[in-house]
Write a structure and sequence with these properties.
Length: 318
Amino acid sequence: MHKLKPIPDTESLAFKERFIERYSKLTDWETFKKYSLSFLRKSIRVNTLKISVHDCVARLSDRFLLEPIPWCKEGFWIEHKEGRLDVGNTVEHALGLYYVQEAASMIPPVVLDCQPGEVVLDMAAAPGSKTTEIAQMLWNTGVLVANDLTGDRLAALGVNLQRCGVLNCIMTQLPGQRISGVEFDRVLLDAPCSATGTIRKSLKTVQMWNPDMVKRLTLTQRKMLENAYRVLKPGGTLVYSTCSLEPEEDEGNISWFLEQHPEAKLGEIDLPIKRGPAVTEFEGTEFNPEVRKCLRLWPQDNDTEGFFVTRILKPKDA
């Protein structure tokens, strides 16, 4: 296991009592806190639209130590041999030969498993880490619709698509719950969330967290999830993911969705990865037992961000 490096000056960082109480019910609080207040390992994904994995590794290995990420064949943890941190400040990065992407963030497109020639929607796409990963799975064939809500985020998405040599993408700007008029072979909804899995990347999440925000986000996520399923072709695959560890945003939303759509099935997620058990009950609410198939990752499981991923299958006769 990679040696943890604590983030300096976090001893005085105050977690809210309600947060501590909630997360103590869900996991080992002290271990979660230790990982959440430690530096996140740098990781990259080789962009096979521009270079092979072998050639990119050969090109970087004079300066960097590279360790394969087990669940993504293009992914590597990366560390500069002389201790520098700026993996985004290289010629190879500027050329789009790789994308700086957190290791757990690579999982949703792997689970979506896009095939060349398909029509795919990334409903909340910016800044583009998963969009560019989907594009390389499509080999620049088919159609990839990358949607987001705000112009600033779309600007960053456009830059990343261009840098990575993505040619099959249409960018759109509207609320995900309002997308209509097209049916998609596969849909990724990496939903806007409370981001409690990303504390080690953004310490302000600790201050921003509150249960009312979680409730508001849950309502938006449900509207987006409902529409993602609506625009999915019969026989298609929908991946719902968050970087939140809140049961309401994760298993709670999936349980609600299955009540609305009893015909929908959850697919197993079989990856070489350590995972936490799915939450099947929280604060008096029992969830649909199918949520056991969801992938719940705590920061301490694989020394990554926390993440939640579900694969939803729409029957061919739906």
